[in-house]
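Subject: sequence -> structure tokens, single chain

Hey, anyone have a minute? Need the predicted structure for the following. Not urgent.
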Amino acid sequence: MTQLTPDLFRFLEDLKANNDRSWFKNNQARFESDVREPLLAFITAFEEPLAAISPSMLAVAKKSGGSMFRIYRDTRFSKDKSPYKTWAAIQFRHEAGRDAHAPCYYLHLAPGDVFVGAGIWHPDGPALDAIRRLIDESPEKWLTARETVLQAGWELEGDALKRIPRGYDAEHPLADDLRRKDFIAVRRLSEEDVLQSGFLERYTDLCREPVDLMVFLTSALGLPF
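Reply:
Had a minute. Here:
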């Protein structure tokens, strides 16, 4: 069954109000039935549609180490010591990627904050340099990729430098894009959108919209799409 239900958002709302290990332990069964199992089923059901979009992107339905993000927070370097994330998320990562900073498709689920993502978040230095270099060398390809997602109702989000990177003219016509540190397109949805019976098909259609962007980014990194 791939249908997501309101129980997923109810669990996350309750977790936000009770973010401690004792509560989570007492509600572990709810997490399994309302969050983890439906999302793993969604990942499994998306394997075939994703392969039709790109055979290089992976849908891995595993409890740990797969496409679903862990619910546990890494609190080692954070003042916020709450142990659990109050959102659920799926990342369909490129087969060459080893972590969350790879080219990917993304689905974020939180009460009042639902969105689809596509692109690369926080690429490392060499990857970032390669993307900027391709923007500079092939501006037409970049503009096509950028305008395709913007015209489809997506937004380009993420961090950016205050100044253009070293080696590029401050008056470069694509200066704003060269300053980007993230190359992520985001399409915001509602909770009602993801609870619709045909959401898997809609998500598939949404993932087709930024294909030009994904091709541009993966080609900059010398990867197939």
